[in-house]
């Protein structure tokens, strides 16, 4: 059973930390504008297993810190969460959704229709590619 709900930004921090940056402390995963974002959680059989955060400037939306607990990866849940984000952005009449994608997961975003841009960078030990989806 899958449920997706908006949550307070503070509930995203433990999964961000565990899945994305376990080698850092919890403060490392807190974003300075977290309070301005929209945050979604995916519950699988009533357990919080996935999170993602959305920020916008006008009609341009960015999602950040998508993470699914390792034990639940590969079950289609990250895709479900992203489909929810895309639908949410369409309802807001967003023109574009973009992200700083970790290069090792770009295939996941291709499957959702995102296109790779030429903008790449290296940060915090990871290679990133800016990817975007026209809505
Ligand atoms: C990336 C992540 C969110 C994907 O979530 P997930 O629930 O494991 O992915 P899904 O099971 O929904 O996969 C959907 C599709 O993408 C593919 N996919 C998922 N991760 C992939 C990867 N790393 N490389 C290539 N394909 C991948 C799946 O095979 C599946 O393909 P299909 O639709 O043809 O069956 C998750 O693996 C994760 O949290 N990773 C660690 C944190 C991270 O990298 N976050 C993203 C930062 S930009």
From TrEMBL:
| N-acetyltransferase domain mapped to chain residues | 1-135
Q: Which residues form a coiled coil?
A: none
User: Which InterPro entries does this one have?
Assistant: Acyl_CoA_acyltransferase (IPR016181), GNAT_dom (IPR000182)
Question: Can you tell which superkingdom this protein's organism belongs to?
Answer: Bacteria
Q: Which SUPFAM superfamilies match?
A: Acyl-CoA N-acyltransferases (Nat)
Q: Which PROSITE patterns match?
A: GNAT
Name of the protein in question: GNAT family N-acetyltransferase
**Organism field:** Flavobacterium qiangtangense
**Which taxonomic lineage is given here?**
Bacteria, Pseudomonadati, Bacteroidota, Flavobacteriia, Flavobacteriales
């Amino acid at each position: 059973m899958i449920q997706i709900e908006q949550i307070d930004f503070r509930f995203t921090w433990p999964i961000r930390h565990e899945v994305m940056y376990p080698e850092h402390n919890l403060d490392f995963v807190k974003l300075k504008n977290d309070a301005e974002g929209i945050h979604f959680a995916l519950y699988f059989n009533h357990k919080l297993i996935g999170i993602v955060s959305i920020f916008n400037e006008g009609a341009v939306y960015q999602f950040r810190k998508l993470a699914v607990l390792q034990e639940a990866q590969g079950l289609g849940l990250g895709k479900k969460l992203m489909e929810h984000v895309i639908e949410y952005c369409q309802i807001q009449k967003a023109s574009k959704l973009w992200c700083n994608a970790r290069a090792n997961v770009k295939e996941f975003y291709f499957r959702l229709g995102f296109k790779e841009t030429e903008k790449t960078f290296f940060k915090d030990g990871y290679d990133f590619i800016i990817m975007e989806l026209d809505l």
